[in-house]
Specification:
mainly alpha
Length: 353
């Protein structure tokens, strides 16, 4: 069980390192435009103050969003045995599904179909859809292989327990009871492991996107662009945190692992803003360079593939095929309404960001 917590922390650190390396490749690279629009010193200072304010704003928004479902576990009405729990999960899944389809995937298509890339291989092949497909397939492989690995481990340990019972007890009925109990324990453990894998893979997809949108805000020099982005991205981080926090709460991790995952999500967008601030002011970063366009487009496409797969296969399908939901028409309709509300709330933000 503790292996999942270690996997989470080390994986998140590796993601940050890879993102920084990729973005470093975009520094001092060929720009598609001859020069950037000139910005006055006064405007640059105001833009910097807004960016610093947005770091605090996004940190709070993300922290509150991801914390609400974790605190909600203490509220009786939000316990898994209550009907409202299905509605909250459906709302969170709708947010994540919309993030993949409406926010991230269109950005990937827009970046990778840029006129700057017309004379490159990226401009002659639909890489956005291709990378999203590969990302979804890769997520499927991680999901199934990791679950199968832990399942085999638990079944092997369960069979050893049964063998011990057979050696010590000769009564056939007694052996049967222990075998059934061992199987039930194994099934429950496997489901819990799978929920932990789902929450960690889901965070990978969200974190990649959060860093990219943070860098976009940090690298911008236009006050007219930064102001609406601050408000839109605050809601964006809040709703994404709400969806991720719901998955983390279901994983029933140790407190340390839960805090690490929640904190990591909360700081990624502010970290992206800080990186954008630094590389735009002193490291020759050009967001419209061919390399930057390709890196951002590929990362967005991969992130979209992960989120779309996870929301449909691991979050929505198990709940909407649940016998408890299907046997209750009103609960079924309420869950669909929550799904629509979650996706609609996130879709509305696409007008501004």
């Amino acid at each position: 069980m503790s292996e999942c917590g270690c996997f989470s922390a080390t994986t998140m650190l590796r993601i940050c390192v890879v993102l920084i390396i990729c973005l470093h490749m975009c520094c001092a690279s060929s720009d598609c435009t001859s020069h950037d629009n000139p910005v006055s010193q006064d405007e640059a200072e105001k833009a910097t103050k807004l960016k610093l304010g947005s770091i605090a704003l996004l940190l709070v928004a993300g922290g509150v969003g991801v914390s609400l479902p974790l605190i909600g576990k203490k509220i009786p009405a939000l316990q898994p045995e209550n009907d409202i729990f299905f509605m909250v999960k459906a709302f969170a899944a709708g947010v994540i599904l919309c993030t993949g389809f409406v926010h991230i995937l269109p950005d990937a298509f827009q970046r990778l179909s840029s006129p700057c890339l017309q004379d490159t291989k990226a401009g002659k092949f639909p890489f956005a859809g291709f990378v999203a497909m590969l990302s979804a397939m890769g997520t499927l492989m991680i999901d199934t292989f990791a679950t199968g690995y832990y399942k085999r481990q638990h079944f092997n340990s369960g069979s050893k327990q049964v063998n011990v019972v057979v050696d010590e007890e000769e009564h056939a009925g007694h052996v049967h009871v222990h075998t059934h109990a061992s199987h039930g324990h194994t099934h429950g453990s496997t489901e819990l492991i799978r929920k932990r894998i789902v929450s960690q893979v889901l965070e990978i997809g969200i974190v990649v996107h959060s860093v990219i949108i943070g860098i976009s805000l940090g690298a911008s020099q236009s006050i007219d662009t930064i102001k609406p982005l601050m408000a839109a991205l605050s809601f964006h981080q809040f709703f994404e945190g709400l969806g991720l926090g719901g998955c983390i709460s279901l994983a029933e991790m140790k407190s340390k692992s839960t805090v690490i995952m929640a904190t990591f999500f909360s700081v990624t967008a502010p970290l992206g803003i800080g990186i954008g601030l630094g590389i735009s002011s002193g490291f020759g970063y050009r967001r419209e360079s061919k390399e930057a366009i390709m890196v951002e487009g590929m990362l967005n496409a991969a992130s979209a593939g992960i989120l779309i797969y996870m929301s449909l296969v691991d979050l929505l399908a198990p709940d909407f095929m649940n016998p408890r939901l299907q046997s209750n028409l009103w609960l079924h309709l309420a869950a669909y309404l929550s799904l629509v509300l979650g996706s609609a709330s996130m879709s509305l933000l696409a007008i501004w960001a």
